[in-house]
Amino acid sequence: MAKRTTKKKTKAKPKTKRKPISLKLSNQQKLIVGSLLIILGVLLFISFVSFLFTGKEDQSILSEFPSRQVEAKNWANQFGAKLSEWFITKGFGLPSFIFSGLLFLSGVYVTLNLKLSKLRKHWIWGTLIVIWLSIFFGFFTHKYDILGGVIGYEMNHFFQDYIGKIGTALLLAFGLIVYLAIRFKVTGDTFVNLFKNAKKDFKDDFDSNESNTAEDKVVPIDNSLSEEAESIKSAFEIPLDNIEPTISKHSKIEKDNPTELKVEPPKEMEVIIKEPEVEMKIEVTEEEKSETDNLADKLVEDFGQFDPTLELSNFQFPPLDLLKKYDNEGISIDQDELEENKNRIVETLNNYKIGITSISATIGPTVTLYEIVPEAGIRISKIKNLEDDIALSLSALGIRIIAPIPGKGTIGIEVPNKNATIVSMHSAIASKKFQNSAMQLPIALGKTISNETLVVDLAKMPHLLMAGATGQGKSVGLNAVLTSLLYKKHPAEVKFVLVDPKKVELTLFNKIERHYLAKLPDSEDAIITDNTKVINTLNSLCIEMDNRYDLLKNAFCRNIAEYNKKFKERKLNPNDGHQFLPYIVLVVDEFADLIMTAGKEVETPIARLAQLARAIGIHLIIATQRPSVNVITGIIKANFPARIAFRVTSKIDSRTILDGSGADQLIGRGDMLYTQGNDLIRIQCAFVDTPEVERITEFIGSQKAYPDAYLLPEYVGEEGGTNLDIDIADRDKLFKEAAQIIVTAQQGSASLLQRKLKLGYNRAGRLIDQLEAAGIVGGFEGSKARQVLVPDLIALEQLLENESQ
Ligand SMILES: Nc1ncnc2c1ncn2[C@@H]1O[C@H](COP(=O)(O)OP(=O)(O)OP(=O)(O)O)[C@@H](O)[C@H]1O
After folding, report:
1. Residue 685's beta-bridge partner residues?
2. What is the CA radius of gyration of the chain?
3. CATH number assigned to the domain covering 331-416
4. 208, 90, 774, 682: which is closest to 445 by C-alpha?
5. What is residue 331's predicted lDDT score, i.e. its pLDDT?
6. Distances in Å between the alpha carbon of 122 and those of 30, 100, 115, 116, 130?
7. 500 Cα: distance to centroid of ligand 1 (angstroms)
């Protein structure tokens, strides 16, 4: 057992990811390669320049290369003479100078770490220019010479043989046009404007010349407005003679029909303001990008965006046919049933002197909603009070009256259908709403009363509380939530922490441990069934939360979505600990059990996570059978605005979950009420059976997985140990209270303390150790309770007093 001393939190080491082999150069290597290129460029340039003067002299000795006895006149000796011969004489002629420039430029680009894609462009265009110039020069020469080189001369001949001299000249002109159009975006308009400007300049020059020569000429002031100004002026002028008939027309309408107020602005009064056509130039200056942004852009350009799914790039999402289709899925309308229910509702209300003006029905999968509009003057509370009477007259369970339906102004009466239909998970997952949803964590909950699939975003909830009596559909609901996420999210994007004190409900998910589950580093099973481990896991999640907040803070992001986006755009350096963060969904199947055994030790981290974890992508789903106030405490309720209530047995339970009644009137088998803080929506939960879940987990489990489950940070908790705390100052605050309980009961057991003081196992164990050190209880005796060494409370009081002296 780990040594119990001081509380110690260990931060998770950022996981080291294996780096892909890269051909990228380090900065030092770049400097070396870059400077070599620059030197080569300079050397080539010197050789070429020198060749212009010494080329002829070196001609005779070219054949003797490479001999050490021979000395060339070229400033770069044999090397320069030979290279110049290749490039200029036998190559492209004088345009070859461009190559020396390109080499030099390449060196600069590599050394300064500039965008290589731009350099590539320079090389392509540079080479094209060299070829064009070489042919161009070749056009004018009639022998091999250094103007166009052998290539220029030969290519000219080649073209002239086929298309003649004129054809070659036109081809060169065409090449030039293509270059100008692509490189400098020159268009036909450019030439027209060029021509116009030239004409205007010429005219201006001519006019100013004229006015300068006639200095004494008086310039007349032009009183007449320009054409444009005239049109604006006339637009503002309202023709007065048009207004009178309009007014009289309106007064006539008022006389004829005083209630009808139809205001229509007279057409004649429309004022059209014409904006003078002024050409506005808006200069858009590009915002200076930071250095990291530039680097990120470059990385994205070179390698594309970071893909978190790359490690399991062949992962296949489970196909739809793993889910079962049901025969009785479609809604069948039983006209007789509808008519019968309608008549009974109208009759019952009539018996209580409640008249209605209209009634309509919406048939859902489990219940039908009858919407009634009562006659004027009828009190809504009167109808609400008749809930039981209507249920009696319809002889049906699960009638719920919604008075009034929010936003509709009608009163709703929900009556269960005689034959409920199953909403299959298949239909929910296959629905367009789910398939096309762009939510972060989409969940297909089931179908509403109007038969629409309800898809909600867990990331927006941001936590979910699920309650309902046993056998009403909680486990199915949890499976529906998990299945939805499995159908939509890649293993790299979401991880589950599953807590299953019942030990049977979530075991199927073991198969996807290395794909989707998260666990503590030292634990064997990813699914947590042991309550002591839950405490460690929750605390570990709190550490993960703190770590994530640090990462977000350093990345200047407000939430996980922003952070992951930045990471994908390679704006965050993995060497600084940054990594792609998957969403973490914590599912606790039986929360009541946990609170009963571990009390505050569970409630505190849960409340902390619920309050703070939404922004960093940790979401909680908590299910409980016992929705009593000591399980769903105020602090938990306050942080779980999204709630699902399956059928419960009492109004009080319903109130605990939903802050109102309703859950007690449900009919079970997946019939549920969902709220995200405001309205209650009645939903038939999508049904997913155990064999379906098994098929899905098997399908995923059989695919290539990560080497291990997602590891949560290590948490060294307050383990119960064997070392005794001798120091009185280090004693637990509840020490005295615990001693009194033990002495009163004369039973030295940790579980007694757990029950009486509502403590977790660890703390109770530690208290027992302290009691042992103080001589109040005896030593550890295996499965038997420890012996209590103090006979009564008076003796205890004395013992404690003596101790403190
Ligand atoms: N959405 C649903 N549609 C149809 N039938 C359902 C639905 N949900 C549950 N049922 C039926 O109710 C039974 C009990 O459901 P479930 O096991 O989910 O209950 P539970 O609330 O988890 O119970 P417990 O708390 O005892 O585990 C299921 O076996 C199934 O027959």
Report:
1. 446
2. 43
3. 3.30.980.40
4. 682
5. 66
6. 19, 13, 11, 10, 12
7. 16
Residues with CB under 6 A from ligand 1: 422, 468, 470-476, 625, 669-670, 685, 687
Report CA(442)–ligand 1 centroid distance (Å). 22
Query: What Cα–Cα distance (Å) separates residue 770 from each residue in 2, 719, 749?
Result: 17, 14, 13
Sign of the C-alpha dihedral computed for residues 193, 198, 204 and 207 taken in this order: negative
- CA separation (Å) from 533 to 111, 465, 529, 716? 55, 22, 8, 11
What's the CATH class of domain 718-804? mainly alpha
Q: Which carries the bigger pLDDT value, residue 213 or residue 337?
A: 337
Would the ipTM clear 0.95, i.e. be above it?
yes
The DSSP 8-state label assigned to residue 521 in this structure reads T
Q: Which residue has the tokens 């003797």?
A: 64
Q: Are 448 and 428 in contact (CB under 8 A)?
A: no
Query: Which residue has the CA at smallest separation from atom 2 of ligand 1?
Result: 670
Amino acid 281: pLDDT: 46
For a substitution probing ligand 1, which of 328, 476, 684 has the most ligand atoms within 8 Å of its CB?
476
Average of pLDDT values for 78-97?
86
Phi, psi of 624 (to 5 degrees): -145, 145
Query: Annotated binding residues, as ranges?
Result: 468-475
Could you report the per-residue pLDDT of 244-282, keeping only the tens digit for each?
A: 333 333 333 333 333 333 333 333 333 343 444 444 444
Expressed in angstroms and rounded, the spacing between residue 476 Cα and the centre of ligand 1 is: 5
For the annotated binding site for ATP, the residues are 468-475
Extents of the domains making up the chain: 27-184, 188-215, 227-269, 331-416, 458-715, 718-804
Q: Find out if CATH 3.40.50.300 is the number for domain 458-715.
A: yes
Q: Which residues contact 564 (CB under 8 A, 6 or more apart)?
A: 308, 580, 581
C-alpha–C-alpha distance, residues 89 and 147, integer Å: 8
Confidence of residue 141 (pLDDT cuts 50, 70, 90): confident
pTM of the model: 0.57
- Please compute the mean of the pLDDT values over residues 330-347 and round it to a whole number: 81
Q: What is the pLDDT of residues 413-460, one digit of tens each?
A: 888 888 878 899 999 999 999 999 989 999 999 999 888 899 999 999
Domains 331-416 and 718-804 alike in fold? no
